[in-house]
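We now fix the convention by which a protein and its fold are recorded. The integers have meaning only within a learned vocabulary of local backbone shapes. The record below shows the convention in full.
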Amino acid sequence: MSRLHKLIYLAMLVAISLVIYIVELQLPSLIPVPGVKLGLANVVSLCALLIYGPSEAIIVLLLRVLLGSMLTGQMVSLAFSLSGGLLSLLCMIVLNKYFSNYISLWAISIAGGVCHNIGQLFIASIIVDTLKIYYYLPILLISGVITGYFIGLAADFISKHLKKMRIN
């Protein structure tokens, strides 16, 4: 595959993840707990990791977070999205590289979902200057496990079909 084709496919992944991110912002929250959402755009980041590798997945994530914050006018959420997204993706990169023969993709995604919530709580504790924010941790861990499982299943399904199309 030429560099141009790869660039085009990565740009499409960024665009798809942006659309998913913006649409998800319009959906009502499933449970009335601040910070709990599906995180469906993370499916695209995980697919980018599986198809292209770590550096491309990080690029897709960073572009989605930066462009998503600018397009939605939610620059305040930039720190939360970056901290959660990067910690999550780094965790999934390590697990995928060293443990993918031993654990399933949905388990890798669950670890990423949990790390995403931990990263966001860390930034929140710095911003509000209190550790009491960690009372949310059990709820966020449960939501990270549930959403991580479904994101892993979706990414597994999508990446298998994209690999059949030979886009890598």
User: Anything to note?
Assistant: The chain has six helices and no strands. The mean pLDDT is 91.
